Amino acid sequence: MRLMRSDGSISIWFFIGVSLLVNGVLIFGAGLYQLSHPPAVKVVLYDYHANVWWGGVLLIIGLLYCLRYNPKRA
Amino acid sequence: MMNLGMATITGDRLVHLAPVDLVIVVFYFVLVLAIGFYLKGRSNTGEDFFLAGREMTAWIAGLSFLSANLGALELMGWAAASYQYGILAAHWYWIGAIPAMLFLGLVMMPFYYISKTHSVPGYLKLRFGESSSVLSAVCFAFMTVLMSGINMYAMALVMKVVLGWDINFSIWVSSLTVAIYVTLGGLRSAIFNEVLQFILIWAGALVIPVMGLIEAGGWKALQLKVAQNASVEYTHLWSTLGSFKDNPMGIHWTGIVFGLGFVISFAYWTTDFLVVQRVLAAKDLRAAKMAPIIGAAFKMFVPFIVILPGLLGLAVLPVKLTGEAVAVATGGHSYNEVLPLMLARYCGPGLLGLGITALIAGFMSGMAGNVSAFSTVWTYDIYKALIKKKATDAHYVLMGRWSTILGVLISIGTAYLVMSFLSIMDYVQALFSFFVAPLFGTVILGMLWKRATAAGGFWGLLAGTVSSVGMWAWVKFDPTALRYVALSANAKDMAENMYRALWSWIICVVVTVVVSMATKPKPDSELVGLVYGATEIPSEAEVPLYHKPVFWAVVVTIVFIALNIIFW
Lengths: 74, 568
Fold this sequence. Notes:
- Chain A is built from 2 helices and no strands.
- By secondary structure, chain A is mainly alpha-helical.
- Chain B starts with 18 loop residues before the first helix and ends with a helix.
- Residues 1-10 of chain B have low confidence and may be disordered.
- Chain A binds chain B through residues 1-4, 9-10, 12, 15-16, 18-20, 22-23, 26-31, 33-34, 39, 41-46, 48, 50-51, 54-55, 58, and chain B through 1, 5-8, 18, 20, 23-24, 27-28, 31, 35, 38, 42, 55-57, 59-60, 192, 195-196, 199-200, 203, 207, 211, 214-215, 316, 344-351, 353-354, 357.
């Protein structure tokens, strides 16, 4: 599924991995912060802590893509 | 501060972003610009700049094909439509897209790809000659940038309502970002970013239906709540389409099946160069055939992040949303705000930033699609055909870069024009619809009927377009004409659009056939690679079953039929 392989250029999937990883870290971190500092006004279904689990999912997928499509492995 | 069960709804804006949300939005802009600069050195030839080197895999081309259509206004508009009309809005994702996308992949792509055309007007030039090509190129190029400007203005307005951002700031920052990365990297950069944007749209929007279904108590409980708050018809796809009066959209099943499912969707998905250009960048014929099928597979599930949030809004939001005029008069919320309202309902810091990024990404992918398609059609089908026929490849690449900037500037100008004269928006959107349905008639006859002649193609296209304008003007000046154009005085705007498209397509086909029969056709030797019956399509007999496009098209068709039955 990679765009380019043989010439050492960076795959689009690596960029996507970086995007998911950074967003995952930020969202997961914001979720953890909210666990320790609960906000005064809460979103609906706050107790499900969507930003913790969704941030975690993005972080893991992003990390896997970064490793799999790391340009240094090409 | 209003308390609607959402975290942060303030008086002058729907949501307030936390610092982490802003970091996510800024990171997105940095990443798309970085991709543009990274790809700068890979767009030196015409084939690189305008066709991304024709080296895209089926997955990349397929996701880009879908992403170019998945704009922010599409997301918010159809979520609003599903709040207003119920699950009927899903027809635009299923019967209004899937058959056409499969048809493009299996039937039409071989001719587009084997002819080695760089654009849809380019195909018309090969098949019918320069007059049809120039007519379609001029209409497409200018309608595309005008539409881009309208979308830009509408998106800036959304950002003002949702985030309180200044309209000028939104217009200039987003359009200059798109201008930079498309000018630097051409179609390859646009495609790269569209795939990234596609993933971000799903990552940002998927939380809403998941959390919404948890809150509503599942699909059955959602249906009950929608029936209580609106009507039981809102969760049925086909069973209410027997009469114009029985459903919230005021439409009949014939309009959905023939107007939307056949003419409008086939016209858009198979001849609108904005989306077809992505598939032309595929690395080989099999990838070009697979790309629309992959796009169709994902398209089937887009209602999960667009239509379902609208229905969930009907079920769980504590306020009743209204039309724009009522919302402005009463200080309430309009249908168009349902997606941001649902976003604010479930998404805390971080997730909110990702959701807003998804909206911005959707807008930018649509705009990048518009300007890259404009640049190609302007350079190859207008500038090269009419102004400078013989120049070096480098000259045309330079023209492509400048026309990208020109396209963005015209879009910005249109956005400011719309700001001053709001009614322009309706006229330009109508203008765009005039042209697409007849174009499909011309292209499909050109591909499937050897007897179609250059004169037939040109006069059919012209007659279809002019008749579409005529029907629109007729209803505009005499609303009672609706009973003739849309077959019912009870038909609403969407139904009128569908029937007008259907009639203009029929007129285009009839005129093309009549004129062709009266004029001399091209010999078969000049139709090789362009027309069914004169073109040898490479055999796929040796390809394993699971690699065959037709196999995956059958799989998509089965799921498509199942979805329609489940939500009947």
